[in-house]
Amino acid sequence: MAPETTDLEQAAPVIEQAAQAITGATCVLFDFDGPICGLFAEHRAHDIAERLIAWLEREDFVVPLTGAERDDPHAVLRVVGASRSPLVHRLEKALTDEELRASVTAEPTPHVDRLIRAWSSRGVPLAIATNNSPLAAESYLTRRDLTSCFDRHIYGRTRNLDHLKPDPDCLNRALHALDADPAKSLMIGDTPSDLEAARRAGVAFLGYAEVGRRTDRLRRAGAETVIHSLEDVLVHVESDGRQA
Where do the TM regions start and end (predicted)? Predict the structure, then answer.
């Protein structure tokens, strides 16, 4: 009987696939909720969505969502934005307020703080490209003393909801501000919309997701490399720094 393959052995070929993109990246873009933190760790997303839907219904807007989509605040925002309802800007403000409250109790993704500092210390420009409010991202980074690592390059949701990922707008804004070559840049994200935005921006993509449905969704969307721990990335970044 063949010996069982360990998690580390399974991860090794995957991370080796991404090694060139990781160590050769001259610019790194992070999605926020997921790769950097669990934004809704305590301030739960489904509770936020429920409050937003209840407010919309009081304003006589019926939300045409069912199932899991009703638990997703961004799905609620998208559907109202697509309707061109005059309520959309008030709804976006309400969601921003909810995300700001959530940023106070957000839980850091394991190993990410050290990874951010390692890349930053090596002079690699970093940016956040997210569908969340940039105010929430900045609030979280300030609490973790990571703001300087990004030099305030935080590109998040605007009032133009047509520019939410998978539209590459926030990635393109980051790349432009950093004068970065997309072909030498790397995006770390955890959703198919992150993957599609990276493709459209011409940026290499590294999927991050715990084992489960998010991993399956990324692979079905065509993600070639999906890792389950940022420790794998950290090892390559720190090793590259020692060899420099």
Answer: none
Using an 8 Å Cβ cutoff, are 238 and 118 in contact? yes
Cα(117)–Cα(78) distance, rounded to whole angstroms? 34
Q: What is the pLDDT of residue 14?
A: 62
Considering the domain 7-38+108-243 in this protein, what is its CATH number? Answer: 3.40.50.1000
Cβ atoms of 27 and 155 closer than 8 Å = no
* pLDDT tens, residue by residue, 63-75: 999 998 999 999 9
Question: Do the beta carbons of residue 56 and residue 80 sit within 8 Å?
Answer: yes
Q: Which amino acid is at 22?
A: I
Residue 155 CA to residue 135 CA, distance in Å, equals 10
Cα 184 → chain centroid: 19
Going from the C-alpha of 115 to that of each of 21, 184, 215, 221, 233, the distances in angstroms are 15, 19, 21, 26, 8
Contacts of residue 183, defined as CB under 8 A and 6 or more positions apart, other chains included, come to: 202
Confidence at residue 31, expressed as pLDDT on a 0 to 100 scale: 98
Q: What region, left, alpha or beta, does residue 5 occupy, with left being phi > 0 and alpha being psi -120 to 50 degrees?
A: beta
36 and 144 in contact (C-beta within 8 Å)? no
H-helix or E-strand spanning residue 60? none
Give the pLDDT mean for 183-195: 96
What are the distances in angstroms from CA 44 to CA 12, 90, 129, 165, 189? 34, 20, 22, 22, 20
> How much is the pTM?
0.90
Average pLDDT, the chain: 91
C-alpha–C-alpha distance, residues 189 and 205, integer Å: 7
